[in-house]
Amino acid sequence: MDREPLFVPLWPGGPVFAQAEHARLSTDCVLLADFVRLPAAGRGIDLGCASGALTLLLLSRSPRLHMTGLELLPSAAALAERNMAENGLTGRSRIVAGDIRRHRELFRAGSFDFAVANPPYFPLGSGPLSPDRDRAAARGETDCSLEELCAAAAFFCRTGGSFFVVHRPERLAELFCALSAAGLEPKRLRLVCARPAAAPSLVLVEGRRGGKPGLRIEPELLLCRADGSETEEYRRIYHRP
Length: 241
Description:
By secondary structure, the chain is of the alpha/beta class. It has one domain: Vaccinia Virus protein VP39 (Rossmann fold, 3-Layer(aba) Sandwich), CATH 3.40.50.150. 29% of the residues lie in helices and 25% in strands. The chain has eight helices and eleven strands. The protein is globular and about 45 Å long.
């Protein structure tokens, strides 16, 4: 018998959330949600939404936002629906079980003001993956390549719409190439570092459909100070006093 999901607050007084076993709520997801520039009102799509963490975080930021979550695994999509329902967000959200690679069959072109993704970081052939299919798909590009992800994001976004994505710094050049090839001009870049003088561990990127050339490199996001204590910005993002 399947266990009943355990819903816990993401922060005191914040939305409640139940995690999928194969895709745990990560720092990557929380930092990306903060990096997204939301329109005053609009429609967004979360590509590979898993159990809906990123969708939920964005909806909690704006009462006039509508989010669609697209997820390949039916079990994860079902849990994402439960997470929306537990927070009274079914009227401002839609969860679709479907394949990103078949995006043209699922939605009309330009249906959204923006797209977001916290994708698997590792290309096929870069190392061993879990024998569990769901865990393997959460870490490696078994079901959707970086190029396919960017192509789908470009299809979903209206002209002038943005795609926000978090990834590994060693794949930044590849990410920029995939964005440009899909017609998404890289416009913002922010490096995430664990502490001062540390090499970046993540990159946050915004690409704009039909955007003009010109990349803004924002100040790095430091998670901890040299003494190991959390920075004020990191605590703000996590709603910590």
